[in-house]
User: What shape does this take?
Amino acid sequence: MVRRAQLVLAIGLASCGARHSTEVSDEAAFRHARYFVCTEIPNMVGVNVPSHIIEETVRDASGLDTLSQADLECLNGQPIPDGVMNALRRRVRDE
Assistant: This one.
């Protein structure tokens, strides 16, 4: 039996209050967290979303508790602000 987790997916910016809640498996939660970090964070930076908004999104998004240090490697060499990287590192689970 797959353990189920409640995951709130951040749709758009957290400041807009647009959220969608769904029950997903742990495996799907891992995939979502990696997608969010590797795709959505660079997209937000690329369209000049203020760093503090991205940091709030990272801090408030549930489902990022599955992050590992390896998940952050996709951001190496990308122009991600230090504050955003620090917010992501605070969400990394103990391995």
